[in-house]
User: What shape does this take?
Amino acid sequence: MLSSKHKYWKLLVLLGGLIMAACGQKQQMDQQKAPKGRSVDYTGSVTFYNTQSDSLTTIEVAVAESEEDRNMGLMDVNDLPEDRGMLFIFEEPQPLSFWMANTPLPLDIIFVDGQKKIVRIHHDTEPFSQKQYSSGTDAQYVVETNGGFCVSHDIQEGGRISFEK
Assistant: This one.
């Protein structure tokens, strides 16, 4: 016959095991429910320059040249490493406007004209927002980076970019 002390410890061990199993099962279910997101291929690079043409930083980018790729942008991308982004290329300079619907990350949106001069930066845009972020003037290229990237690398309007696809 087991003493009451042994019964107590057996009960505690059994309850602890049940709790741990339930927590593991809940975590597994949460991971299955979590959106996997979309991944993009980084096939190009963008270098940012200040107004004195000094190189500030270079990032790897996914390149969106087709209408379909531009429409998808970084929608449903849940993870964007600090040194990565997306370069949108349009056929000709025109007024451009972007929004953040289905984009889960805050982004810096950098509008660039046909001479590769930065004409407008929208900092830390709001995820999942339907707000329109406009170039304010003709732009031919757009670079999206993580929110706060421009501030942390001193990228400013009037600077320039170069890129390789």
Residues 68 and 107 are 20 Å apart (CA to CA).
